[in-house]
Amino acid sequence: MNGRLADPKALGFGVFATGAWLFSMSLAGFMPVVYGTPLQGVAVFVGIGLLVAGVAAFLRGDGWLGFFFILWSATAWGVGASFTVGWFWFALAIMNLYLWYA
User: Fold this and answer.
1) Rounded distance, CA 3 to CA 78, Å?
2) Backbone angles phi and psi of 64, in degrees to 5
3) DSSP secondary-structure letter at 5?
4) Residue 1: Cβ within 10 Å count
5) 10: number of CA atoms within 13 Å, CB side?
6) Which of 3, 12, 72, 86 is the most buried (most CB within 10 A)?
C-alpha cells in the first residue's frame, strides 16, 4: 500500500540519537536553558520526530519498530511533562490504537 513511503529507520534513530545527545549536553550543563525547564524544547523535538517515524513504520508494516518509536516518543514527552503532559497521553493513545490495529 505505501511502497513509496521512505524507510523510517533513518528518521527515528537519527532523532533518537540527536535527542539523547541533546539531553546529555543539557544535563551536563553545556547547553543553556532557553525557556522553562532545561529539557522541554528537546523533549518536544524528540517526541514529534519519533512519533512521525513510528506512524511511518506502522504504515510500512513494521509493527515492532513503530511500537518502539512511539513508546520512546511518549517517554520523551514525559520528560518534559510539566510542559507537554497532554502530548504524553496522546502518544500513548496512538500507540495503543496501533497495537490494537496490528
Assistant:
1) 33
2) -65, -45
3) S
4) 7
5) 3
6) 12
